[in-house]
Amino acid sequence: MSQKEQEIKFISGNVAAAYAARSAKVQVISAYPITPQTTVVEKLSDFVDSGDMPAQYIKVESEHSVMAALVGASIAGTRTFSATAGQGLLYMSEMVHWAAGARLPIVMTIASRGIAPPWNIWADFTDVISQRDAGWLISFASSHQEIYDSVLMAYKICENEEVLLPMFIAYGGFVLSHTSKPVIIEPDDKLEKFLPPLPDEKGWPHIFIDPERPMMHGNLIMPSGFYYEFRMKIHDEMMKSTHIIKQVALEFEKIFGRSYGNGLIQEYKMDDADVVLINIGGLALQAEQAVDELRQEGYKVGSVKLRHFRPFPIDEIINIAKRVDVIGVVDRDTAFGSPTGGAVSSECKSALHNTGIDTIILPIITGIGGREVSVEQQKEEFKILMKLKETGELPKDMIHGTLWDGVLEVK
Amino acid sequence: MWKIIAESKDKRPKLQNYKNWNELPPIPISFPCYGSMGETGDWRVFRPVIDKKKCTKCGFCWMYCPEGVIQKSEDGFFTIDYVYCKGCGICAKECPVKAIEMKRESEFE
Amino acid sequence: MIEKKIIEIAFHGRGGQTAITASKLLAEMAYECGFKDAIAIPIIGAERRGAPIQAFSKISRDAQIRSYCSVTDPDFMLIFDTTLLKIPRVFATIKEGVILIINSNHKIDFNNNLQKSVKIYIVDATGISLKYGLAIEGFPILNIPMLGAFAKISGFYGLDIMEKVIKKKFGSRAEKNMKTARDAFETVKEMI
Asked: In what residue span(s) does the Pyruvate/ketoisovalerate oxidoreductase catalytic domain sit (chain C) (predicted)?
């Protein structure tokens, strides 16, 4: 069904993701229910069943088949969507790599949850981070509206002929998936202006299923063939996609009036900030409240929302480091055995290497497995950064160079 | 450059035409064409030869040939394209009346 | 300061008493009647019928709500079942100045354990639901009468807004729901 006028709906993050797929005129959906993503599947099947969304819903028996079905549907030249979480994403992993290798612009939302064992269903981005090297663009949404908006932007980025890669949009399970807020659902005329046209009968230019033009894909390439070069191309085009992401964010702002920074990162009160906290997902938005409260107390603090983890915004991180003395990088994920124990902080440190910038980076890990992170706790994190700036003193209870903030202590 | 692959059969670039990785299409694909691996006839060390006197025109050799190099001719007998035949011997093995003999290539030099 | 602009409501119920739906409906009704922003935060675990459930709503007339964390210092508390008051972590959040709305058909004795600034209202939500047959398999649904009582006590939204939202959500079942809301609106009273 078409959406004539803008509508504000009071919905959960999951339902916002489903509405986004409807707004993006997705043609083929395949998804398998898993907590905390289940309500995305429920809403989408509602849409398809009621005729509200003229899409094919392919029912399958597992997440692995979900992505296999979408790979087929996308090769045939359709706009495709799925959603999953945690163990489901891990089970899908083989086909996740396949989608990127075949350069298919599939978009999937992830209601991130902790990885078992021990069993956990609450916010933790380790699931999506584990697919870091698959060749998918990885973005994080920090609000219900951003989930909706990110899906729309994703199709425009992914279907660009210079990109042609799939994209994850991750948000914290329950933190965003099950909380409800007002979300603007955009009308068709505006959407038409923004979204790329749906692929025509000929499908994508690089891969297609057409009896008139038979082709074979998925061939074996010998070590002496171009396998190496094709991998290099994925990296090259992923890195170059930063320009497309920026361009799309600008265009989005122009048409819909909602700003997401430069698309890769979004700064908050950074102009005169001495210290800054970089966050992913919902905690990034909550950190803005912590900034406001601390500024009233006279602290010059700023916050940065990292919207894209892949491609990693190297230039933006360097630019931030040039302006502040101390950066706290907060991971709501674990990267066991990595230099900092968290994926984002390791990469921020790596981005500054050999730049001659001596800004201190304090890696922080927090909120693992849905452990609640309050505004007060974030304010404390800022205060630790201020102390580090003033005295050069690192917090005492760090483990392997990282502050694990919010660890339980029984008194 | 890679975008024309979808357009026309004649305009498709051949693998050898790519000078460097920049020119490659986003993914490796191949189109059906004659002998994509080159003239594989020179891989052959034994040559299958059909004895027309024994042949019953059953078509087993044509059906079993993994490379599709056996064709039916107008008189109903089958001929083998030695430019591409690798000499695998499957036709000789499958022939129900043993009408195909594998002869050493050196006999034909 | 910024915190104060945001009104926080805590819901304590048992699995099946529809406390989570209540938190969502309350936030939606507040947004519907002109509040600038609202969020409903359910605390979801592996709960089953009867397990203690928590949910929160944060509503604000003029500020954007940016926090997703649970409420530790609520302005209002809606207690769906008096047995919940015996749980220490529920009781511990009854702080100074909080307004309690409790589902009960009798006066509750707190043995002077509460601060004087705590205001207590009681409404017999269970009785009202059973009276109008608002139940699933004999288990009364309490969210609508509790929200009806909240409408009266808080004055944030009227029964008209409630009717609008409930009609949108429940369609033909709205009428029965509204009867319980009206009854609760009229019968909720301060416990003295």
From this structure: 15-186
DSSP string over C98-165: -EEEEE-SS----TT-S-TT-EEEEE-HHHHHHHHT-EETTEE--HHHHHHHHHHHH-SS-HHHHHHH
Dist. CA A287–CA A378, nearest whole Å = 6
Helices (H), A102-226: 126-129, 144-158, 188-194
Domain B40-108 has CATH 3.20.20.140: no
A79's tokens: 């706009």
Give the structural domain span for A138: 7-256
Between C46 and C104, the higher pLDDT residue? C104
Give B-chain residues touching A164 at CB under 8 angstroms: 26
Report the distance separating Cα A37 and Cα A40, nearest Å.
6
Residues in chain B within 8 Å Cβ distance of A207: 26-27, 29
Mean pLDDT for the stretch of residues C162-167: 94
CA distance A245 to A157: 6
Last residue of a domain, one of A229, A256, A283: A256
Kindly report the nearest CA distance between residue A26 and chain B, in angstroms: 23
For chain C, how far is it from start to end, CA to CA, in angstroms? 32
Structure tokens at B6: 């979808």
**pTM for the model:** 0.93
Measured distance CA(C77)–CA(C95) in Å, rounded: 10
pLDDT of B2 reads: 59
Selected for mutation to probe chain A from B8, B27, B29, B31 (highest A CB count within 10 Å) is: B27
pLDDT in tens, A62-113: 999 999 999 999 999 999 999 999 999 999 999 999 999 999 999 999 999 9
Alpha carbon distances (Å) from C127 to A205, C20, C79, C123, C145? 66, 20, 15, 9, 10
Contacts of A16 (CB under 8 A, 6+ apart): A144, A145, A147, A148, A183
Same domain, yes or no: A168 and A107: yes
Regarding whether A222 and A313 lie in a shared domain, the answer is no
Chains A and C touch (3+ CB pairs under 8 A): yes
- Is ipTM beyond 0.90? yes
List the domains of chain C with CATH numbers: 2-190 (3.40.920.10)
Distance CA A69, CA A29 (A): 9
Question: Over the range C78-107, which residues count as b (16 or more CB within 10 Å of their CB) and which as e?
Answer: bbbbeebbeeeebeebbeeebbbbbbbeee
Q: What residues of chain A lie within 8 A of the CB of B24, using their CB?
A: 226, 229-230, 233
